[in-house]
From TrEMBL:
Keywords: Hydrolase, Membrane, Transmembrane, Transmembrane helix. It comes from the Bacteria. This is LexA-binding, inner membrane-associated putative hydrolase. It holds the Pfam family YdjM. The chain crosses the membrane at residues 32-50, 130-148, 155-172, 184-210, 239-262. One of its GO terms (molecular function) is hydrolase activity.
Length: 269
C-alpha cells in the first residue's frame, strides 16, 4: 500500500481499538492521550517502510517515511535498508532469491514489530518525558507526512519538521509526570503490525513467518493471490479503502469524545 493508506490505517486502528477498550474494558483516555496515541500509531504504520531508501545527496526518491525529514531521514533509510539487506543475506537459505535491496525484509516481520514496540516502551520508561518528546517528534512527523501527504509535499520537509517539533513540545509540556508511558510503545507496535497486514493484501506480500524456515526458504513472502490482491495505487486503495478507513476512524473518534452525537442518529456505541 501507499504511505497515506498506511498512515490512515494506523489512525483508524488506534481509534477503533480505543473505542473498543472504552466500551468493553472501561478503559478511558484523556483527549490528549487519545490524540497522541492516534498520531503515534499513524506514524508507526509508516515506520516499516524506512527500509526503502532513495538518493540521499539529491534528496530524492525513497518511501514516504524516508522523505519526511529531508536528507536526514533519507540517510537513516539508507542505513536501515543496508541493515535489512545484511540480515537477509545472513539468514537466507538455498531457495531464497538474490536481492539488490532490503525492502520488505527485516522491518516487515513480527520480530521487528515486537522489538520496536518493546524498545520504545523501554526508552520511555527509562528516560521518561525526554525520551517521549524525541519519539513524538519522529512519529508525529511521519503521521503528518502520511495523513497530509499533499500538504506535506507542498510545504516541504523543513515545515514538516518545525510543525512536528512544535507538536512534540506542546505534548511534552502537557503530559503528566514520569509514568513510563507504555501506551506509546504499544501504539508504535500496533502501527508497525497494521503496516504488515496492509502489505499482506498486496501481490508482493511480506515475510510475516520469518524466521520460520519453509521448504528451504527463510524469507517466504505471504500475500493474497494475484486475482484478489490489492494493486498499489489503484482506485480500490485510494478511493474505496481510504474512504472506509476514514469513516471508521471518524465514527470511532466521535464515539469516544461525543457519543451523544452518534446516538442522535441511532448509531449504537
Amino acid at each position: 500500500m501507499m504511505g497515506p493508506s498506511h498512515a490512515l490505517s494506523g489512525a483508524a486502528a488506534w481509534l477503533t481499538g480505543s473505542w473498543a477498550m472504552a466500551q468493553f474494558a472501561d478503559y478511558h483516555q484523556t483527549p490528549l492521550a487519545l490524540a497522541v496515541g492516534t498520531a503515534v500509531c499513524a506514524g508507526g504504520a509508516l515506520f516499516p517502510d524506512l527500509d526503502l531508501s532513495g538518493k540521499v545527496t539529491r534528496n530524492q526518491g525513497g518511501a514516504t517515511v524516508a522523505r519526511t525529514f529531508g536528507v536526514v531521514s533519507l540517510f537513516v533509510a539508507e542505513v536501515m535498508e543496508k541493515i535489512s539487506l545484511g540480515v537477509y543475506y545472513a539468514t537466507k537459505l538455498s531457495k531464497d532469491p538474490r536481492r539488490s535491496n532490503g525492502h520488505r525484509t527485516l522491518t516487515h516481520t513480527i520480530p521487528f514489530t515486537v522489538l520496536v514496540g518493546w524498545g520504545t516502551t523501554a526508552l520511555c520508561a527509562h528516560y521518561g518525558k525526554w525520551a517521549v518528546v524525541g519519539i513524538l517528534f519522529f512519529m508525529i512527523g511521519l503521521a503528518l507526512r502520511g495523513l497530509f501527504d499533499k500538504w506535506a509535499e507542498r510545504a516541504g520537509w523543513v515545515v514538516v519538521t518545525l510543525v512536528s517539533a512544535a507538536a512534540a513540545w506542546f505534548t511534552f509540556a502537557n503530559l503528566p509526570g514520569d509514568r513510563g508511558y507504555p501506551m506509546i510503545g504499544l501504539a508504535v507496535g500496533v502501527g508497525c503490525f497494521v503496516h504488515i497486514l496492509g502489505d499482506m493484501i498486496t501481490r508482493a506480500g511480506v515475510p510475516i513467518l520469518w524466521p520460520i524456515p519453509i521448504r528451504r526458504r527463510m524469507w517466504t513472502m505471504v500475500g493474497l493471490p494475484n486475482k484478489i490482491a490489492l494493486r498499489t495505487g489503484s482506485k480500490t486503495e485510494t478511493v474505496v479503502l481510504r474512504t472506509a478507513m476514514t469513516v471508521l476512524a471518524v465514527l470511532a473518534a466521535v464515539g469516544l469524545v461525543a457519543p451523544s452525537v452518534l446516538q442522535r442518529f441511532d448509531i449504537q456505541v
